[in-house]
Amino acid sequence: MDEVTLLARFGTAMRRLRQARGLTQAAVAARAGVPRLKVIQAERGDGSVSVGAYAQIASALGAEFTLLPAKRPTLDEVRELLAHG
Q: CA 48 to CA 60: how far, in whole Å?
């Protein structure tokens, strides 16, 4: 699986977790000690965001990184990637 798909999935997971926790992007940014724009970029799966910033945001969400075997992207993920590409 390519890095664009991996980052898109990761960003989507971060956004869903933030929303499930009832937090705004601004609240997560404040907890993580990063600008709100960084949270926005991370939720988009932006490759320019450092792994450190991703870790700060994940920590602010009460989450951690987990490595799993890759799986093929879903049709919805492919559509979303093509829409933003």
A: 20
